[in-house]
Amino acid sequence: MAQDSSGRPDRTTGVTRRSVLLGGATLAAGTALLSPVVMRNAFAQDKKAPVGNYPAGSEGDSVFVGICTPRTGTYAAQGEDEIKGYQLAFEHINNGNEMLSKMSPNLGKKKGVLGKQIAHGVADSEAKPNTAVQAQTRFINQNKAMMITGSVSSAVAVAINKLAEREKTIYLPCITGSNDTTGKDCSRYSFRSCFYAETAANAIAPVLIKNLGKNKKVAFLTPDYTYGHTVRESTQKALEQQGGWQAVTNQLSPLGTTDFSSYLLNIANSGADVVVNINFGRDAVLSIKQAKQFGILDSMKLAIPYLAPFVAEEVGADTMQGVFAGTDYWWTLEDKFELAKMFNKAFRDKYNTYPEWGAAEAYLQVAMWADAVERAGSFYPPDVIKAYEKGEKFESLTGPVHFRAEDHQLVRPVTIVQGKKPGDMKTDNDYFSIVETVDGGPLMQKPDAFGCKLGDYT
């Protein structure tokens, strides 16, 4: 007990009724002397106002991450690859892992993120914006997601950017090549780490001009949505300005096209020297196969500024030999980068196959998010965002990278590959040789060039 009935001090606490009353009076007087501003600031330091799912989503032993990526439709193979990368990252973070500790001193040595395990759910976006928004909204409302992630379609990424901004939930798009994702449709709550139209174009254009020559005529085969439009615009501009190339036709096809014959006929009759195929996923596979069948690739060179995972495997080395392409990651980068070698081994041990760049990107996104949370010391979204915006270097699978505060775009290298002849392949999956890994900084536009205006933190 604090005191006995006579008012004598309790032998444990040394507190009397008189001292309590005097202390209370002194506290009341001191409080009255404090200004309302000081009181508000003191309260704010002790307890942050709720933002998004904070604090409710981080009060238990785990935090939830919602993944929504295509598992059906034209981008399904790329979506499944992403899921493998995410799951490997969660496993490494939850259990601790040496590779993570080499990426950042804040990771790998302890289990979890700020001591909490990562739980996750997976939904099929079907590469449709409305479907993705509905699924991620369920993860936010029902599962109290503290982070949402996943995309192959840039139309989906842009839609989820808007959702993340509205719900104040951090979103990490995975594959999204449109300039708009961190341009006019950027979000304070979204961070993109993959390469994109402008960097792809500026990386591949010098290689094409050097190997194929100047003043060439080029035909574009373009998916008719934000990804295709911006990749075509950036690639055409780079080829015109750097090599005097002339665009003779731009064939727009709807996402999910299966018969490209009418578009390919127009390309065949265009007089082009080079066909630049911007299609992605199954659309890329079908359009390349059909171009080969129609004999177009016998008279025109094929170039792919934004290479979809699994395209080489699907169309075959005979078709891909000699083709120049831009990518985020190719597994033979392990010959140059230790972390790439460690990642490849971990991925092969778990899945018995080599990773494609969607899996590498998914792993990187989760690792960088965990690092930002650790540096923030909290899951409070504005603090995590500000940790990202500090631009601190992070060791990726292909060298040091960092985010730009102005548009939330990762400054990262772009790798240019060339298809190998079948006889030069050392393994069944050895489709490409590395031509060059290009420093990302000089490839990028100024942060405000594509209209990015980040929203508020709260």
TrEMBL record:
Record key words, sorted: Amino-acid transport, Membrane, Signal, Transmembrane, Transmembrane helix, Transport
Residue spans crossing the bilayer? 20-39
Pfam families assigned:
Peripla_BP_6
UniProt keyword annotation of Nucleotide-binding present: no
Which organism was this protein described from?
A: Pararhizobium mangrovi
State the family it belongs to: Belongs to the leucine-binding protein family.
Q: Which CDD domains match?
A: PBP1_SBP-like
Q: Which PANTHER family match?
A: LEUCINE-SPECIFIC-BINDING PROTEIN, PERIPLASMIC BINDING PROTEIN OF ABC TRANSPORTER FOR NATURAL AMINO ACIDS
Protein name in the entry: ABC transporter substrate-binding protein
Q: Name one GO biological process term.
A: amino acid transport
Q: Which residues form the Leucine-binding protein domain?
A: 63-421
The record's section on InterPro entries has: BCAA_transport, Leu-bd, Peripla_BP_I, TAT_signal
